[in-house]
Design brief:
peptidylprolyl isomerase, Cyclophilin, five-stranded antiparallel beta sheet, alpha+beta, single chain, 16 strands
Amino acid sequence: MKPVLCAAVALAALSTSALAAPKKPAIVPPPPPAARPTAGEWRTPDPNDVLVIDANKGRVVVEMVPEVAPLFVARMRELALAHFFDGQKFFRVIENFMDQTGDPQNTGTGGSDKPNVPAEFTFRRGADLPFVLAADQTVAEVGFVKSLPVMTQSWMLSAMTKDQKVAGWALYCPGVAGAARDSDPDSANSQFFLMRAGYPSLEKRYTAWGRVIAGQDVVKAIKVGEPVAEPMDRMERVRLLADLPEGERPKVRVIDPKSGWFKAEIERVRRMKGADFSACDIEIPSEVK
């Protein structure tokens, strides 16, 4: 991945009046959080869709979402089963952006011996996709596919399409996992990145294939640099949850986005954020034991 991505910073000028001091708005406390989820409001991810990254800074657990990026998820499974990622370093890490790894050369120029993976920047949302609505914006709908925040065209348009589906794409919120590439859209191979912060300009330009469901604090603790100075932080071991021996396999569960608890949490955050509401504001509770 060799993108040159710059975050634009907007500066706003503030004016004050010497004639009258503005009245302070009343402070409205945010709605209280919903009660703890009940046992039936959790789901257990498919262990073949869970990537366990043991880094020198700690453990990161990523839920892969083949519903939106089946080709790259298959590649990640294949390379994890081959122990390809073990020992690889986080060679490009940018604060308020992302951690990049997955290159055996640890430079950003290498990859696996497998063929490149075509772009999966968008997906088709059909009636069978496990999409949970978070906000209806009339022409578009914001929601979740498992733990991944997404946006799609309005479902009303599905009646007018040949395949009875609408276009969708992932939202690059903190924790989202993306496939690195060069200037060729179809050049993803083995390099990937984990988002330290939200970065909307990546949407519909880079394949998103999952999201961190535990260990985002580890993602943010990885040593920063472009390139990172030695010693770089590294992935000591990367495994599919299903491939771990029974005695080493953690028990993982994630809140079910179809649950009443999650719907109540969406409403709470919407009321708290108002017009500034974003799917990135929704926390995805998980437990890894």
